[in-house]
Design goal:
Blueprint lengths: L1 H29 L87 E7 L3 E10 L7 E7 L6 E3 L9 E4 L2 E4 L1 E9 L2 E8 L16 E7 L21 H5 L3 E9 L6 H19 L4 E7 L1 H12 L6 E5 L9 H4 L2 H11 L9 H8 L3 E2 L7 H10 L10 E2 H4 L4 H6 L12 H6 L4 H4 L1 H4 L20 H5 L5 H10 L50 H9 L12 E6 L11 H13 L6 E6 L6 H17 L16 E3 L5 E4 L15 H5 L6 H4 L12 E3 L1 H6 L12 H7 L4 E3 L27 H18 L11 H5 L3 E2 L4 E2 L15 H6 L3
Parallel strand pairs: 9-10, 9-11, 11-12, 12-15, 15-16, 16-17
Antiparallel strand pairs: 1-2, 3-4, 3-7, 5-6, 7-8, 8-10, 13-14, 17-18, 19-20, 21-22
Pfam families: DUF6351
Protein name: DUF6351 family protein
InterPro entries: AB_hydrolase_fold, DUF6351
């Protein structure tokens, strides 16, 4: 009887889901997706670079190379358009999807009649567009326009000045009370929208005045996970409401959708555009006293990389919810689904994995037993429609809540969540990956796909759990025998994401993308993925990896979000700090502040940085550290904004081999899967160097666990050896800064010879040391003092702040990052 009831329940649920799926499918076809418009990409120009097989980047690192002189005449006047081609970031790539200027609701400018780009329609934007196509736009340019917005009394909202009705808020700036009215300018630069927001003065829209500006500039950065091929959208709130408090104090704010990483992660293009946006601002308003960056997630990544690659772009940074960079995060993030598939399916009979906290023993990241698994319903539905009982237990982890859905976005060339915005033949022929978007740096393989840095050969998943006695040697072997890598790009299939791909039912649904994994074939261990050394070299040399050099003050500020299973984990802040200790020998110019919602001390951060930067103006002969205000200390706060602790030791913990400090006790960090596997918190190893299993045993890699009886099995699972994380990254090129010898004379800016000579000496010294000390998980004195830094100056050798500008010849949380 129980069996009959079980199958009746399955049948009833299946019929219900069948009906539900049919209804949802019809609705999806009848009703357009949010933000869907008549403007989709119908054609694209032929590109010369697509006909060749580009090699990975091998030139000078952007930190030691010059930028060309500007060729565009700024400012862009009202009614004109900005530059289309980047200055040094390389040729424009196509297809390119036009976004929306929601400030003015106008279509892009017509630039061709050859069906290239998106169609432009006749009619009046205010009254609606006609069905008549009057031209096409492949580069999505918009006329530069400006208008006034006012802050409505009693709110943090802004509205067009024409809508004011005796409800304009008053503010005090420079000792005078004025109406809170902002001049907002928008246009396009390098094909991306830009915006400038400054308090209205006595001047006109065309010739603004500066009397209400406090001479300080904020560059707004934004995050997300993007793979290029689109412009993004802009709206007034992106500047005015996000930076309400700062504008109220007289700060000017600038922004570009090229500096929003939900559109792309090309740091050259981001820098190229940011320099030009600043040029537009300075041409209108003059030089600011300083420029401070503010932005979260991918917006923080840009700030860390700009501080390293071109420290003259920003004078200080407020890095919110930071990571050191994007590409090294893929290393552990792309472990998530293979491990989750093992827990949910391969080893589903093991009761251990019904406890989500036990999964953290292997994945490292936080997990909670009672959290709602947003993907559970679809998994239940798929199982029931296949006549099976669901196997996934209640609960979730950061891997699921924070990162699920982003591996396909970054790594599957067949999948993109906005493919309906492109003509079918275009969408089908594109490679939709982060790697392809940056193939000028990563290079291309023999199949025409961009190379990838991701590698897990020799990675011993769950090693720390084994050493601690939390899992048995047999389970450790089982995990590593069954958890493989990802298929090569030319073998990958489309994702199985139900309605997102126009499917009626989730029968063939896979939340893990397991059909694209390298799975075990029974007795044979699962194959691992071998990353491209060329791609790794290109990532390092092109400045897409944060190597720990930052020539500006940085406040690394975040909410503690581990309890929400959010992807923005606190470990990332300490990864940046350890890289700075390894790279420049100190982290005196980085503060880590952590708090809880709703408290967010951005105003306090701006005030502190103002003191710091003013000190530097008064004492340019002193180092950044010497100019640091007394209040510039590591700190943590509670949700009410009360200071819990501050000082140089409050964040001590396992990351620096110290007892937990006061803040670490309040806000404990979690590890990543690679840290559990033996890597350091720095997370800067793309590909580990390998050692034979016998050598690993002799070196004490397995702690007190006797693996001698299992040596043959270990060698079968790891035929090439296991990771030796005491060695440097196998993907680190011999010359990070100077590139290949044939590329070293690409640029010859003033002073480059002296800087290159200094770097050569440093790299020779590092080569002699083999960088071993700098890559050990334990930070000893050798680690802290074997650096390429002139500590007396406080800056890396050959590069001092103030020199001339250096040329560069889908989870609930995750889905929000994909929105334009």
């Amino acid at each position: 009887m129980k069996k009959l009831l079980k199958y009746c329940a399955v049948l009833f649920t299946g019929l219900f889901l069948l009906s539900l799926g049919a209804v949802l499918y019809v609705l999806a076809q009848v009703r357009p997706m949010p933000e869907q418009t008549k403007q989709y990409v119908v054609g694209m120009p032929a590109m010369a670079d697509e006909l060749s097989t580009p090699a990975a980047y091998s030139g000078l690192h952007p930190r030691y190379s010059s930028r060309p002189n500007e060729t565009f005449s700024f400012p862009i006047s009202l009614g004109s358009t900005g530059p289309v081609q980047p200055l040094f970031a390389g040729a424009n790539r196509y297809p390119f999807l036009c976004g929306r200027n929601k400030v003015h609701s106008l279509q892009p400018m017509i630039d061709n009649q050859h069906r290239l780009g998106v169609p432009v329609y006749g009619g009046d934007g205010d009254k609606g567009l006609s069905e008549e196509i009057i031209g096409y736009s492949k580069d999505c340019s918009h006329l530069t326009q400006a208008s006034y917005f006012y802050n409505r009394l009693g709110t943090a909202k802004f509205y067009p000045l024409a809508e004011a009705n005796n409800d304009i808020a008053k503010i005090t700036v420079n000792g005078r009370e004025i109406d809170f009215i902002v001049r907002l300018e928008t246009g396009t630069i390098n094909r991306y929208f830009y915006g400038l927001a400054v308090l209205k003065g006595a001047g006109s829209l065309a010739e603004p005045s500066v009397e209400n500006w406090n001479q300080r500039l904020i560059y707004q950065f934004r995050g997300g996970v993007g793979i290029g091929k689109r412009q993004g959208n802009i709206k007034s709130a992106d500047l005015l409401e996000r930076r309400y408090e700062a504008i109220k104090q007289g700060y000017a704010v600038v922004y570009s959708t090229a500096n929003q990483t939900s559109n792309h992660y090309n740091i050259w293009l981001a820098e190229d555009t940011a320099l030009r946006v600043k040029k537009q601002f300075q041409s209108l308003y003059g030089e600011p006293l300083y420029t401070v960056g503010i932005g979260g997630s991918g917006g923080a990544i840009q700030q860390y990389l700009f501080a390293q690659n071109n420290p003259e772009l920003l004078d200080a940074a407020i890095a919110l919810y930071s990571y050191p960079d994007m590409v090294t995060q893929t290393t552990y993030v792309m472990d998530c689904e293979p491990l989750e598939y093992y827990f949910d399916v391969t080893d589903a009979a093991n009761p251990l994995w019904r406890s989500w906290k036990k999964r953290s023993l292997i994945e490292g990241v936080n997990a909670q037993e009672e959290a709602d698994n947003e993907f559970a319903f679809l998994s239940y539905a798929a199982a029931l429609l296949n006549g099976e009982l669901p196997k996934i237990s209640k609960g979730s982890s950061e891997c699921v809540q924070g990162w699920r859905g982003l591996t396909p976005v970054v790594h599957n060339p067949n999948f993109i969540h906005f493919s309906k915005k492109y003509r079918r033949r275009i969408a089908d022929n594109e490679h939709w990956t982060h790697w392809d978007d940056l193939k000028q740096f990563y290079g291309v393989d023999e199949h025409g796909y961009a190379n990838s840095t991701w590698d897990n050969v020799g990675v011993q998943y769950g090693l720390q759990a084994l050493r601690n006695g939390d899992i048995s040697p047999e389970l450790f072997l089982n995990i590593n025998s069954h958890v493989g890598g990802w298929k090569p790009f030319h073998e990958m299939e489309q994702e199985k994401y139900w309605l997102m791909l126009g499917k009626v039912l989730p029968v063939d649904f896979s939340q893990w993308s397991h059909h694209n994994m390298l799975l075990s074939e029974g007795a044979k261990p699962a194959a691992r993925t071998r990353g491209s050394l060329a791609a790794m070299h290109g990532a390092y040399r092109s400045g897409h990896v944060f190597l720990g050099y930052a020539d500006i003050p940085i406040i690394d500020l975040r909410h503690y979000l581990e309890d929400e299973l959010d992807m923005h984990h606190s470990t990332a802040s300490f990864a940046s700090r350890v890289r700075m200790l390894k790279g420049q020998g100190h982290a005196d110019n980085q503060l880590i502040w952590m708090t809880e919602k709703p408290h967010i001390p951005i105003v306090e951060a701006l005030s502190l940085l103002d003191q710091w930067l003013q000190n530097q103006r008064l004492h340019p002969d002193k180092t950044i550290a010497a100019n640091k205000p007394a209040a510039a200390q590591d700190a943590c706060f509670n949700a009410a904004g009360q200071l819990l602790a501050e000082g140089e030791d409050v964040w001590n913990g396992d990351w620096n081999q110290q007892p937990d400090g006061a803040c670490s006790q309040v806000y404990p960090r979690y590890k990543t899967s690679r840290e559990v596997a033996g890597d350091s918190i720095a997370g800067d190893v793309f590909k580990c160097q390998l050692q034979p299993v016998a050598q690993a045993m002799a070196a004490g890699v397995y702690g007190r666990i006797n693996m001698q009886p299992l040596q043959a099995q270990l060698e079968r699972v790891f035929p090439e050896g296991v990771c030796d994380y005491s060695q440097k990254d196998a993907g680190l090129p011999v010359s990070v800064w100077l590139g290949e010898p044939s590329q070293q004379l690409v640029a010859s800016p003033t002073g480059l010879g002296e800087r290159v000579a200094a770097v050569e000496e440093v790299e020779l010294n590092n080569a002699a040391l083999n960088n071993t000390a700098l890559n050990k998980p334990v930070l000893d004195d050798a680690t802290l003092h074997s650096t390429s830094v002139d500590k007396a100056a406080g800056h890396p050798v050959g590069r001092s702040h103030g020199q001339g500008t250096a040329a560069i010849s889908v989870a609930p949380m995750a889905l929000s990052l994909l929105q334009p």
